[in-house]
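Need tokens for this chain, all 383 residues.
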Amino acid sequence: MFPLATGKKGIDESPWLARLKNLLIILVGKENEPLESCLELLEKDLDSPHLEIVRQVIEYQAYQEARDYLERIWGRYPEKAGEIQFLLARCYYGQGLIQEALFCLQEALEKEPECAEYLELQADCLLEREDWQGAVEALKKAIWANPKKVENIYRLGTIYAYHGENAEALRCFHGCCELRPHNSLFWEMKGETHLKLEQIPQAIFSFEKALRYEYNPELKARLAYCYTQVKNYKKSIRLYSQILKQDPTHYDSLCNLAAIYQNLGQSLEALKLQERAYKQCQNDPILLNNMAYTLVHLGRTRKATEYYQEALKLAEANPIILYNLAVCHAQKGNWEQGIATLNALLKIDPESSEAWALLGNIYDHLANHELAVDCYNRALKLA
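Here are the structure tokens for all 383 residues:
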């Protein structure tokens, strides 16, 4: 691979070694006698390759210095050829030279095909090249070589989760929880995956486990959200209230608790919470839509219209906001504005049965029965 001499002659101190000494002194903070002795060995003693020292140098991100040394000794120690190639690959990877790193890893794996750390770095390189399937295969081999290294199982799970392979991700996170049952993060990821798979009871169990081992308000909010999904509003309200007692500005809890109160018909309580959230963020279209929806139920349609319009400035193509605004116009008897809003919605989503039905209602109020019937028929076909 490299045009290097293989004789075991002494090597004079060179500029790269001087730079390396200076770098390590800076990183350590002062002269370090054992470290200096190690550097002297790198400089003069070629009877062994001192790869542990090289690993430390790489940890300091002195990739070029480590690479220079490895290239000088490459070919001298055939019994260490696999590890030397691996360390060269780490240097190349650190320098962003992914193809060169993969080439070195290929040679290293030919010598030690079941070495977990070689396979882990290969997975890193393949992810850099956006070859996630290749990275998955490399990590599977690494796990086979070292089945109790939970970090690799977790990494595999996150790759699967990122690419929507939730069933595979769940298997990985389940394995993590079995290996380290007191790790909050593993239970949290298991819960999130259950949630993606719409397995709400299992998600609740996992989130409760995660909270047992580490308190996290965001995690508690996720648990409250799960209870909302199964309509256990009593528990949801209790959990959100606990979060807000500790942090009265917790945005998601304010918004989600408000939504629960709105669903329970307690619009005044909902509005109080939404107004607290609005003080923190005035440019959230979902919050603006929900505030407007609450105001409609309180009979304040004029103010609701203003909030819907503000929401549409931030999310002009949102069909839900457009539909709610159209309802608001219809309730106020603003028929032409309602028609215009629904036409804008139907350009975005022409298969919205609710929009066609509402448009039919408006035309019916305007005594345009032919158009009303046409809209109702379209709504029925799409329902």
